[in-house]
Amino acid sequence: MFLTIPTLMTWTRIVAIPLIVGIFYLDITPASQNLIATIMFVVFAATDWLDGFLARRLNQTSSFGAFLDPVADKFLVCAALLVLVHLQRTDVFVALIIIGREIAISALREWMALIGATKSVAVHMLGKVKTTVQMVAIPFLLFDGILFGIVNTNVWGTWLIWLSAILTVWSMAYYLKKAIPEIRARAK
Q1: For the chain, N or C: smaller number of CB within 10 Å?
Q2: The total number of structural domains that make up the chain
Q3: Greater confidence, 87 or 109?
Q4: Residue 182's domain spans which residues?
Q5: What is the rounded distance in angstroms from the CA atom of residue 134 to the CA atom of residue 102?
Q6: Which ranges constitute the DSSP H helices of the chain?
Q7: pLDDT tens per residue across span 101-136
Q8: Taking the complete model, does pTM exceed 0.85, yes or no?
Q9: Whole-angstrom distance between the N-terminal and C-terminal Cα of the chain?
Q10: Are the C-beta atoms of 86 and 143 separated by less than 8 Å?
């Protein structure tokens, strides 16, 4: 099921990456760059929920879609974080924590799948909360202004991205704790 509606929506998140990055190279005002990049990020991030909903609703779930969905999410988040580091709107340490965790947990999940223990590292609510906080923090930092005349998105985004980094470490520790018994059992 390579070209189902849900899978095509997942592909849009990957295609969005150079578009969002490219906005910051256009000869337009920084405020326009911020607004366009924010809107694009929010729209494409929303496809994460929508593609899963449609896959279940249209009975178009597939192994390929289950593989591609988290990959697309990670690419989109990592690209946005690199843009934010480049624009000096977030700390490189935060980006390293988040990107490093994504690589480590992806590798752990792949290895656990190879040994037949995928249930040990199945997605947990803590990971979903972490993702939600990231998906709110990133648009706030991309917007980098005052929203509705009262919300300083840079301040809120900075607090949320640090909260996201804490949740990132916490969720990684959770997944590692769940995987250790399987790792020990297989090492014997």
Answers
A1: C
A2: 1
A3: 87
A4: 5-187
A5: 13
A6: 5-23, 30-57, 63-86, 92-114, 125-143, 153-187
A7: 999 888 887 877 777 766 666 677 888 899 899 999
A8: yes
A9: 39
A10: no
